[in-house]
Design goal:
alpha+beta; Uridine Diphospho-n-acetylenolpyruvylglucosamine Reductase, domain 2; Uridine Diphospho-n-acetylenolpyruvylglucosamine Reductase, domain 3; Alpha-Beta Plaits; 7-stranded antiparallel β-sheet; 18 strands; 21% strand; globular; binds flavin-adenine dinucleotide
């Protein structure tokens, strides 16, 4: 095809791959969206390559999917309409860490934990910490406005994006935002592109705000007989003025399914656990831990483990980070829902998932960022049960709406939640979003499968 020859000529053959074996590596992401093999995979080495590629692809109207590491849980990195995948594995440089001005400049293919290590080495701190941080990229994090356990105290990726370099569908290379601490010149375009899921432009450089590294951290793992007592503890902690840097919950279904694999050390009778982390200068820890203990005890805690040393803290965190990979290893397909409810309504949501299990005959295991009310409701299913999965998802999300919540907290809309997004947004607002998409990408080549029905 002519557009493939032009890509090879303009970018160089080694950056444009069309052999099946290579293309098939980019057919899936971490969601249960069906695989689609793209026609071509491009590995740009700089923004100039992205500009050249998009000019050709836009002219020929080829669907184009930017891609980080493919850890998306909502199907956004699957090239549903074939076409081209642009992978950022060769644009993976940390270009600058500026301790005086508390910022870092990175290419989109930098793995998130690499930035954490690099800045912490200089006594700085980049808070967003999706549980996939050892594999996902900062480009993917910006595109999804990724959160993570520390969002409760520190916010999500959008709170750290200062300036972006973006290439539009037509190949226009532009900078939005400013690397300064403050900036109000016009509309907040960095925020518009953050969370736009690759539908408005391709991100080729990111300037991120950093913080000074908190000198101390303490991690607590509190075991409860059930999630109702754990959720009550969460609400009361927040009500009493505690602001942990993380406040994570794992429900009894997860523990029944994978408890032995994630935390063999949990005491007998544990039906749910909370992982709580405080960070700061240290002297305040004693008071925070003691208040956490009092509140937990009032709500029936069975045991509370605490650690300040790195290796024990890491072991406690593993209990939380391994939940999803362990559920995945059970051999089911998983629909990853990512709902948010007002924190005080978490017990209602979790008990409703049991009713959905009874109605659909599917297993549901939930865990997540309880401090934010952001619960990952995982529907486990076997091939052929897709109809029941859709029913289960609709039941759960309709309950979430009734409780005053939203269908998506941090994993994006992708392909799997498009209909839910259309139902959740008022038609006028939905129309504005579609208008923005048309403005930036008139031919609709960028992730045409994502977000809009
Ligand atoms: C085990 C596990 C745990 C997870 N935990 C969390 C969590 O705690 N919090 C959370 O928020 N998410 C979590 N996720 C979801 C996922 O890791 C995040 O959405 C992450 O931001 C995706 O990054 P990625 O590099 O893998 O992007 P991809 O999956 O490759 O892409 C995601 C989306 O971003 C677009 N995109 C990628 N790069 C660019 C670019 N340069 N320009 C424009 N668009 C681009 C893609 O087209 C796609 O739509 C988890 C996933 C897994 C598998």
């Amino acid at each position: 095809m002519r557009w493939i020859s032009r890509l090879k000529k303009d970018l160089g053959e080694e950056k444009v791959r069309d052999d099946y074996e290579h293309r098939s590596l980019y057919s899936r992401d971490s969601s249960d969206a069906p695989a689609v093999v793209p026609e071509v995979v491009i590995h740009p080495e700089g923004p100039e390559d992205v500009v050249k590629a998009l000019r050709i692809l836009n002219e020929s109207g080829i669907p184009t999917t930017p891609r980080g590491s493919g850890t998306s849980l909502s199907g956004g990195a699957v090239p549903r309409e074939g076409g081209v995948v642009i992978v950022f594995d060769r644009m993976n440089r940390i270009k600058e860490i500026d301790a005086d001005n508390l910022l870092a400049v990175v290419e989109p293919g930098v793995i998130t934990s690499r930035l954490h290590e690099a800045v912490e080495g200089e006594n700085l701190f980049y808070p967003p910490d999706p549980a996939s941080l050892d594999t996902c990229t900062l480009g993917g994090n910006v595109a999804e406005n990724a959160g993570g356990p520390r969002a409760l105290k520190y916010g999500t990726t959008k709170h750290y994006v200062l300036e972006l370099e973006v290439v539009t569908a037509g190949g226009e290379r532009m900078r939005v935002g400013k690397r300064t601490k403050k900036w109000v010149v016009g509309y907040d375009l960095p925020s518009l592109f953050t969370g736009s899921e690759g539908t408005l432009g391709v991100i080729t450089e990111i300037s991120l705000r950093l913080l000074p590294k908190p000198p101390k951290r303490i991690t607590l793992l509190a075991s409860f007989p059930d999630e109702v007592s754990a959720s009550r503890t969460v609400s009361e902690m927040v009500r009493r003025g505690l602001l942990p840097s993380a406040l994570e919950l794992v429900d009894h279904k997860c523990l029944q399914a994978v408890g032995d694999r994630i935390a063999p050390f949990l005491p007998k009778g544990t039906g749910s656990f909370l992982l709580v982390e405080y960070d700061g200068f240290g002297p305040e820890f004693e008071e925070q831990v003691s208040l956490t203990y009092d509140i937990s005890q009032k709500n029936g805690v069975i045991d509370l483990l605490g650690a300040e040393d790195e290796s024990t803290r890491r072991r406690l965190w593993e209990a939380r980070r391994r939940v999803l990979p362990s559920l995945e290893s059970l051999g089911y397909k998983i629909r990853h829902e990512d709902v948010v409810v007002p924190r005080s309504r978490i017990p209602e949501l979790l008990s409703y998932t049991e009713e959905v299990e009874r109605k659909t005959g599917l297993k549901i295991a939930s865990f997540g960022h309880a401090g934010d009310g952001n619960i990952h409701v995982n529907v486990l299913y076997e091939e052929g049960r897709e109809g029941d999965v859709e029913r289960a998802v609709n039941l759960v999300v309709e309950k979430v709406w009734e409780l005053g919540g939203t269908c998506a907290g941090e994993h994006g809309i992708g392909t799997l939640k498009k209909e839910l997004m259309r139902r959740e947004l008022p038609p006028f607002v939905y129309g504005i979003l579609k208008g923005l998409k048309r403005y930036f990408d008139p031919k609709g080549i960028l992730n045409p499968h994502v977000m809009f029905v």
